[in-house]
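Lecture 7, part 2: worked example. A protein chain together with S-adenosylmethionine.
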Amino acid sequence: MTDLPDGIQRREFDGRTRLATRGEPVYGEPTDGEWRCWDAGRSKLGAMLESGMDIDLTGDEGVLYLGAASGTTVSHVADFAGPTYAVEFAPRPMGDLLDVAEARNNLFPLLKDARKPETYSHVVESDLDLLVQDVATRGQASVAVDNARFLADDSQLLLAIKARSEDVTADPETVFDSVCDELTEAYEIIDRQRLEPSHDDHLGVVARKR
Ligand SMILES: C[S@@+](CC[C@H](N)C(=O)[O-])C[C@H]1O[C@@H](n2cnc3c(N)ncnc32)[C@H](O)[C@@H]1O
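Predicted complex, written out as structure tokens:
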């Protein structure tokens, strides 16, 4: 069961109850006053929260977000959480991400490679509460394990695993099992759930740092 902080609400948009955060709109999402709809169809973390996975959020978390792209999901995270470091290695979406950060003084975009945490360890604080990861790259488990260095003990990992980024031909369940096995080097898995129908061949994982 998901524990939602005050900064995330369930509200009605177009006759459907959906998640929402308070902040400047980013991707043309529907709004209701200062609340903006968090579109689970465009956000794996949104889908994980909407499906009621075993996630525990308080709203004052320090966050490291890996794979921020243009800021669709990390904008919602920065709306409800504390300092949010957003790592993205592609220069193209970084321009959009900088615009998103303009309206959020707790969002810090970093043009860095998530496979090389040593290149941003001088900027990102230590003892963070939450690692959110959505990087379309091979070696998703080792990225999460290598970045555990920024987390306090017992903090949370919210991970979306994309099967095809590991192996386009393998059965997704086999890929998910192997990534989850590798994660246990640094984390205890609390919950795992496929993200269909909104995100094909993706697994949502909730874990705690050991
Ligand atoms: C599926 S998109 C992320 C979407 C985003 N999380 C959202 O929901 O708004 C995956 C992103 O991971 C980025 N990425 C892939 N490998 C990376 C790496 N090694 N370091 C940083 N970013 C990476 C890609 O450039 C891409 O923007």
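The chain has a mean pLDDT of 97. The chain has one domain: 58-209. Keep this in mind for problem set question 3.
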